[in-house]
Amino acid sequence: MPEGPSILILKEEVQQFAGHKILSASGTSPIDIQRLEHKKILEFKTWGKHFLICFDDFTVKIHLLMFGTYRINDRKELQPKLSMFFTNGELNFYTCSVKILEGDINNHYEWSEDVMSEMWDPKKAKNSLDEIPKDMICDAILDQNIFSGVGNIIKNEVLYRCRIHPESLIGKIPSKKLDELISECSIYSFEFLYWKKKNELKKHWLAYSKSTCKRCNLPIEKKNTGKRNRSSFFCTNCQKLHI
Fold first, then answer.
1. How crowded is residue 74: how many other Cβ atoms within 10 Å of its Cβ?
2. Which of 31, 55, 165, 196 has its CA 20 to 30 A from that of 232?
3. H or E segment and range at residue 175
């Protein structure tokens, strides 16, 4: 599943279509696709993993889910969920969720929850964590209403950096450690973006998909953790379990 930084790259790549009218639209999505035709795109926005195509009275929300892809001025043999054609090119989305959000986009999203937004509010994230002390941190860090844009790669790398075991209970983690984790969610997301643009993201992974801890030279454990049952990679020696 593409994480927040990858969706920001998508936003940058489609700027050629901002301010342009859609000449025609098609696709297998159940939305009223004809509604998009002859409408001018005001701007593109992102909220975490959501890609937003904003019009004057509604917004098209695209979520790439686990295996979604897109093509700019290119096509796949696969039937697209949504295709949009412009005077200066075309934009195609595949294997994704497409929905229409009515009215002002600001009424649908809390931008302060997005770890890569200028409006990101770490204090709000801390307050949200304080409300769920019995939850595992591995679940909370993937909660898009707390850390919008954070996915499983970022989760694993941040927990490794902060030396926190993924099955730690939030209420047992020291306050300063939680502050560090909250900060790292945003910091690492921007580093992810930088490395992704340079096509060198994987070489910077310290925990995700790794077999040996670089700090301890001991085996990295792989385990599905928490209620979300997502894969976690961690060192039981240097990542403290707070329970």
1. 10
2. 196
3. helix 175-197
What whole-number distance in Å separates Cα of residue 33 and Cα of residue 237? 53
Q: What domains can be seen in the chain, in order of their start residue?
A: 4-107 (3.20.190.10), 111-234 (1.10.8.50)
Residue 243's CB is within 10 A of a number of other CB atoms, namely 11
pTM, two decimal places:
0.95
State how far the Cα of 37 lies from the Cα of 161, in Å rounded to an integer.
47
CB count in 10 Å sphere of residue 127: 11
CA distance 182 to 208: 19
Q: How far apart are CA 237 and CA 243, in angstroms?
A: 15
Other Cβ atoms less than 10 A from the Cβ of 205: the count is 15
**Short-list 204, 227, 137, 236, CA closest to 177:** 137
Question: Over the stretch 21-67, which tens digit does the pLDDT of each residue have?
Answer: 999 999 999 999 999 999 999 999 999 999 999 999 999 999 999 99
- Structure tokens of 215? 């700090």
Q: What's the pLDDT at 104?
A: 97
Taking the C-alpha atoms of residue 77 and residue 64, their distance in angstroms, rounded to an integer, is: 18
Question: Tens of pLDDT along 78-128?
Answer: 999 999 999 999 999 999 999 999 999 999 999 999 999 999 999 999 999
Q: Strand 58-63 and strand 69-72: pairing?
A: unpaired
CA distance 190 to 136: 25
Inter-residue contact 224 to 136 (CB < 8 Å): no
Calpha distance 96→221 (Å, rounded): 32
Distances (CA, A) of 39 to 75, 84, 191, 197: 22, 11, 36, 31
